[in-house]
Specification:
Layout (H helix, E strand, L loop, with lengths): L4 H4 L4 H18 L22 E9 L9 H12 L1 E10 H15 L4 E9 L1 H4 L1 E2 L2 E2 L1 E8 L4 E7 L9 E9 L2 E9 L6 H16 L4 E6 L10 H6 L1 E2 L23 E6 L2 E8 L8 E7 L5
Parallel strand pairs: 1-2, 9-10
Antiparallel strand pairs: 1-14, 2-6, 3-6, 4-5, 7-8, 8-9, 10-12, 11-12, 13-14
Length: 292
């Protein structure tokens, strides 16, 4: 409980200093919950959107565990710099996503709804009480309402449970099926191949879809063949064959992160460095203009 200054003040300089420190701590605790609060807000670069960009989507593995100081405040600022309509997060703890969403709203005025695709209840990853650990997996943030939410765990996750989630939401003014996934860790090619078979079959059931995620595989990896058969990457120069033109998305100079588009035209993209993860942010602008 936060004490008012007159309740905390007692004679003596040391106690007065302690009271002042408690007030600062209390401001720190309540600051992010104040609408439009600026206590933690990081100024955005010139030219950053003032509102969500309706035809922009983003994928980002936010890294867990990555214990960078103020990471959720920084993650929110990084997202607000590009203000996508839809964001797919991987390695996401429910509590972290809740804080990111709150910072986006209260610091930058960007209001998102959230759906989760948690596949683990992990105290070591996400904290909480040992008998009530936090959910860990995927999350989708959307500026528009989401419907028909599903969360599917792959039959074989490899060394750690993995899965995909999907929602229907609005992108570029049109209802669109959006998937978000995280495939098995590196050096598990056969497991990833089975996972992409499951995912590609689900994507193929939709005439129009966007697939966000960390696939833990380079573009010419055999296990991605099924995905290339049903969709194309938002980076038009990046194809299933190694061309040397795919932008890298990780700190180890590999492209593991994709925005697959099914019957949707790309209209620009960007890969952005961040201090808060070992993966870069990858965003794409898309064109869902009905050709008819």
């Amino acid at each position: 409980m936060c004490l008012h200054s007159e309740e905390a003040m007692v004679s003596g300089t040391g106690v007065r200093l302690l009271a002042g420190a408690m007030i600062v701590v209390c401001m720190t605790l309540v600051g992010p919950s104040a609408p439009k609060g600026t206590l933690f807000a990081r100024p955005l670069p010139a030219g950053a959107p003032e509102d969500v960009v309706p035809n922009r989507v983003m994928t980002w593995n936010i890294c867990n565990p990555c214990n960078e100081s103020g990471q959720n405040i920084g993650r929110a600022a990084d997202i607000a710099t590009y203000a996508p309509q839809v964001i797919g997060l991987q390695e996401a703890c429910v509590r972290d996503v809740e804080r990111i969403r709150d910072h986006l709203e209260y610091q930058y005025g960007l209001v998102y709804q959230v759906e989760y695709g948690s596949v683990l209840r992990s105290w070591s990853r996400c904290g909480g009480l040992p008998w009530r650990p936090g959910g860990f997996g995927q999350a989708i943030l959307s500026a528009a309402p989401m419907t028909d939410h599903v969360s599917v765990e792959y039959p074989d996750g490899g060394s750690e449970d993995r899965g995909y989630m999907a929602v229907t939401t609005t992108v570029d003014g049109r209802p669109t099926r959006v998937f978000n996934t995280h495939l098995a860790q590196r050096r598990q090619e056969a497991v990833r191949a089975e996972q992409t078979d499951v995912l590609a079959a689900a994507v193929a059931r939709h005439d129009r879809a966007i697939v966000l995620g960390d696939f833990n595989a380079v573009p010419d990896a055999p296990e991605l063949a099924e995905m290339w058969a049903v969709a194309a990457d938002a980076d038009p120069e990046c194809r299933s064959r190694a061309t040397g033109t795919c932008e890298v998305t990780t700190d180890w100079y590999s492209k593991f992160d994709y925005i697959f588009l099914r019957d949707i035209a790309p209209a620009g993209h960007g890969v952005h460095l961040t201090r808060y993860s070992d993966h870069n942010m990858f965003h794409a602008d898309v064109d869902l203009t009905d050709p008819t």
